[in-house]
Amino acid sequence: MSTAVQGLAGLDAETLGMILDSIREFAEQHLPQQRLLDLDRSHDFPEDTVRAMCADLGVQLLFIPEAYGGMGGGAFDVYRVCELMAGIDLAIATAVLATFLGSDPILFGGSEEQKADWLGRIAEEGLLMAYGATEPEAGSDLGALRTTATPVVEDDVVTGYRLNGAKMWISNGGYADLYSVLALAPGGPTWFVMEKGAEGFTHGIPEDKHGIRASNTAALSFEDVLVPASAVVGGVEGQGLVQAQLVFGYTRLMVAAFGLGAGWAGLDRAIRYSTTRIQGGGPLSQKQGYTHKLIVPHACRLEAGRAYIEETATRIDAGEGTLNTEGAIAKYLSTEAGNGAADAAIQAHGGYGYVREYMVEKIRRDVRITTIYEGTSEIMEMTIARDRWQAHLKTRGRHYHDEAAGLDALHATSPRVGADTVAKATRALAELLERARQQRLTRHQHVLFRLGELIAWVEGAAALARRAAAAAAGTLAEKSDRRMKPEALAAVSRVFAREAAAKLASEGMRWAVGADGVPSADRPAYEAALGLAALHEAQTGLIEDMDRVADALYANLES
Ligand SMILES: Cc1cc2nc3c(=O)[nH]c(=O)nc-3n(C[C@H](O)[C@H](O)[C@H](O)COP(=O)(O)OP(=O)(O)OC[C@H]3O[C@@H](n4cnc5c(N)ncnc54)[C@H](O)[C@@H]3O)c2cc1C
């Protein structure tokens, strides 16, 4: 097992802080707003800048273990860096992410020799990488891949492979120095690492995209491309999908951080704008109909995503395993929240939001990709629902009741973070899952996916309540983000907890009844089991808490 799966201690807080500062300085110098807008328009890949981020700034050193010349950053460090970079520009962040992604099969599945060679070169020479998994016919379903790797046999020994096929939508596809390519060998899907310029290996023209236009996305084509046997990651055929699975928890966390960073970049602009835009006799920042629709709920949803990211990153760094489902929840919550926030940021700017100059229009287009790449939101819903469904069945329905008991215990020690409300929503979820089991409702794919959404919301609310409690107790990790003060974070948590509860109240009825799982005679009993009255009662005080969150967000601006 690789170091990364065993857990990464990561950087100390001071080193992480220095890295974040140097990225900010680099961006101030090389990536002013006008250049970002120009790159977006021309859709030119700023190769020099991306290479400078690796060669001069050494961003890629972050994820390479110290043994191979890197800094040995952990998942938590990668989250903080990805959030910051996405807040600057998601296209450039994507170019850097592609090197992270491209090297992950090596990091998680490579032999010692391969790691020393390839990771050593990435560290030392600042090589750009690309991650070639997707194909024209194989997107969400990677198992359908058609690119083949045919062994070249000499004297009964496999000396190499010939690759034939095509890859689609590959970030850095036209510029990478090294490529990780998933191909079907006789033993099954296998990762190969190959250099640019191999005979028969070509790439297409840059895709003309909706957003992240300054990133390079290109198709790859392989015609009898010869690679040596030593190019097989881990040296054994057929490990490709397992190796891809090993990294999902970690890589989805990176894209989750992208959603968070881009979402906050849009929302921060809207918050600032609303203090100076006077309409109806006062600044928009003082209009509740504006803040409580366009600002506050988005801030709360983003912070729920953050709480889940931080919890998952901490657990990955502690060596708790690959945490694929948790990575999926983090990605789902944060990228959906990021999209919602960026969209609201356009609305919050009115007509000015619709033109390029104010940046929110670009941010909205850029963040759109985060619910698509590294697994679409729908695939996340499926992943989440399937895993927690198993947990429900295995524990005979206790799983979320036990979680709810934990939240009640949290409420006893931290009564101000809304953990009691999350506990109610969590019990409602347990009852909904049980109803789904009794009535076999998951035979409807749509119901299964909706369960995935509700599970993510409930677990996100729980993580946020725990984070708010830690902030209040002064026990947040040193490397944690500190955008919200403890009192404000508690209000954020209470608002999000109520939204999760309201979602359970309405959707818990809607899909169970909608799938004919609750005969009318049964309805009062099901409503009582769901705790409908308690979920509604929990909404008491919502507006007052939203006022508190708005005040805190605008006070942040002044401090
Ligand atoms: C800008 C960009 C950069 C990218 N970079 C890379 C990269 O560097 N490397 C790489 O390998 N790939 C990359 N991708 C590919 C990306 O990961 C895929 O586009 C993504 O996984 C979705 O696959 P697809 O496009 O084939 O969509 P499909 O899988 O065809 O999905 C289409 C729609 O159907 C839904 N869907 C799919 N399966 C199911 C199902 N079983 N049940 C219900 N609904 C379903 C999806 O959620 C989606 O809404 C990139 C894509 C883009 C656009």
Your description of this structure?
By secondary structure, the protein is an alpha+beta fold. 59% of the residues lie in helices and 11% in strands. It has 20 helices and 9 strands. It has helices at 3-6, 13-30, 33-42, 47-55, 75-88, 90-109, 112-125, 240-276, 288-294, 296-317, 324-348, 360-367, 377-394, 399-413, 419-438, 445-473, 486-514, 523-530, 532-537, 542-558; strands spanning 129-132, 148-154, 157-171, 178-185, 188-195, 201-203, 217-228, 278-279, 282-283. The strands form 3 sheets. It has a 4-stranded antiparallel beta sheet, with helices on one face. It has a 3-stranded mixed beta sheet with strand order 1-4-5. Strands 8-9 form a two-stranded antiparallel ribbon. Helix 8 (240-276) runs antiparallel to helix 12 (360-367) and helix 10 (296-317) crosses helix 17. The protein is globular and about 75 Å long. The two termini are 47 Å apart. Residues 98, 131-134, 139-140, 169-171, 209, 212, 217, 369, 372-373, 376, 378-379 line the site of flavin-adenine dinucleotide.
